[in-house]
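Collaboration report, partner site 2.

Our partner group contributed sequences for two proteins of shared interest, and the home lab folded both. The records are reproduced in the order in which they were received, starting with the first partner submission.
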Amino acid sequence: MARISGVDIPNEKNVEVALTYIYGIGISSARKIAAEAKIDSVVKVKDLTEPQVQDLREIIERGFTVEGDLRSRVTMNIKRLMDIGSYRGLRHRRGLPARGQRTRTNARTRKGPKRTVGSKKGS
């Protein structure tokens, strides 16, 4: 397995797909990186030579914020929103959707499992 930005990328996948295993690189960024490194999209990671892997490492290091740096930046941005008391910060603090989605129904991922209120047994 090739190790890029502290992540072991899978050998059996195409280069473009394998690069998406790195946090902060999606499919469009992966295509740009592969094109800049002059690597064909259908080449598997196991077929890459060491200079090609080194080129990928340099391109990612030079042009992209990935993994730990990106995670900490996102965390700091959310913390800043909560500290200044913005609407989005309050939504993050309460664990509710922050981008305008409805919450009357369909917010279970953010709100967690249902908490039944007001059902009394016996009476």
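Second partner submission, folded after the first:
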Amino acid sequence: MKIVYSDKKSGKTAQVEVPKDHEPMLLGKKIGETIDGGVVGMDGYKLQITGLSDTMGAPSRREVDGTRKVYMLIANGPGIVGAKKGKRMRRLIRGNTVSADTGQINTLIVEYGTKSAEELFPKKAKAESKEEK
């Protein structure tokens, strides 16, 4: 399971793998709830869950309760990209609760901890091959 956390102040986003022994702490949480950042090594931080997707890539929606999968007739929002006005599509949608089938949890930083932004969002190293040429 992965957690993607975003910082509105800096506009940066990063991804962290959740250790297997910490996954049970996340099960049962719903979209909109806050979780402790210590689960992924971000001590002192609070993260708000903004979205989920399962291991197959199906997005979750707030209005579908539980962990079930349903085919919904939807016009906009998660699961629909570039729909025209008045057009609705039937899409596979996951429920709003974290389960064992959840592959990714999207979060937003609500409270900041002791680590700085530079430590949380390390800069990507440039390829050494460019420097050699």
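Feedback sent to the partner group on the second submission included the following. The beta strands are 2-7, 12-17, 34-36, 46-54, 69-74, 89-94, 102-111. Residues 128-132 form the longest helix (5 residues).
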